[in-house]
Amino acid sequence: MSLTGKVAIVTGSGRGLGLAYATELARQGARVVVNDVDQQVADDAVAAITGAGGEAVAVVAPVGSTETAKALVAAAVESFGRLDILVTNAGVLRDTVLWKMSDDDFDTVINVHLRGTFTCVREAATYLREQGEGGRIICIGSPTGQRGNFGQTNYAAAKAGIVGMVRTWAMELARANITANAVIPVAATAMTETVPFFKQFVDAAARGEQMPPFARRVLGFGTPDDVAGVIAFLASDAAAGVTGQAVGVGGDRLALWSHPQEVATAFQDGGWSVDQLTEDFDSLFGQVLQSVGQPMPQPPAEKPADAPAAQKVEQR
């Protein structure tokens, strides 16, 4: 696989997951437009990429507005002559429970994640269709958007919306040979370091230590570099037949998220009255009601050093 000759934009790529994506795309041969809101952070990212033999330029601006989207595409075309790949990664958090969430908390997250994804993809897709050589749209989702998470009304809404838009874009852009996919990463970043459940693993990664198998396999939790390969694959010609998908990745785990679909159906001549629902709903659907939130399995108890290792075959 090679991305030689390709040009990519990665929003929110000054640090963390975004920087890992930009670095890997450059390593595979793509020229990259880096984006961040901090000039020094953006300059450092460009320096790291060019220092490793890649090519990169920076656009320092917050995503959300049409003006930033236009500036990003213009930078790609003016600096490198074309555009082939867009990765929408930029994001912020304003976590709090529903009854304490302010309008600004909600609007800020929606503007950066959801509107920022929309404006950047709209601008990139418009250019890619005119360029006429296909392209790759890769949007970053989250398990919170798939399952919900306590204290993240705004973030859950934005990330669920992103995956919904990706499914729509996969249909709308197919005739132009432009794929649209979502990636659902789980990794040690500034956004996960404050989660108590992940703290020990984030701290281990910060110390340069290998995360334990429980984190990497059971939780599917790893480092930003563990996610970057999926981004480069979806950006490549090898993934030309993959579109409209939500691909989960973290640690040693690669997964494909299902699209929402009916899990049970029932029919009543003339439709369903309140009385009929009261009588029948539990017997019809009580055993298939869907769970919410991400399940967090507890780590196994440590075994004595002389205990024999159990043989296990994973089945999924």
TrEMBL record:
Q: Where is the composition biased (Low complexity)?
A: 306-316
> Which PROSITE patterns does this one have?
ADH_SHORT
* Keyword field: Oxidoreductase
The Swiss-Prot or TrEMBL record annotates one GO molecular function as: oxidoreductase activity
Q: Does the keyword Oxidoreductase apply?
A: yes
Q: Which residues form the Ketoreductase domain?
A: 6-194
Pfam families (alphabetical): adh_short_C2 (PF13561)
Where in this protein does the record put region Disordered?
291-316
Q: Which SUPFAM superfamilies match?
A: NAD(P)-binding Rossmann-fold domains
Q: Where is the signal peptide?
A: none
Keyword Transcription regulation in the entry? The reply is: no
The family this protein is said to belong to: Belongs to the short-chain dehydrogenases/reductases (SDR) family.
Q: What is this protein called?
A: SDR family oxidoreductase
Q: Which organism is it from?
A: Georgenia ruanii
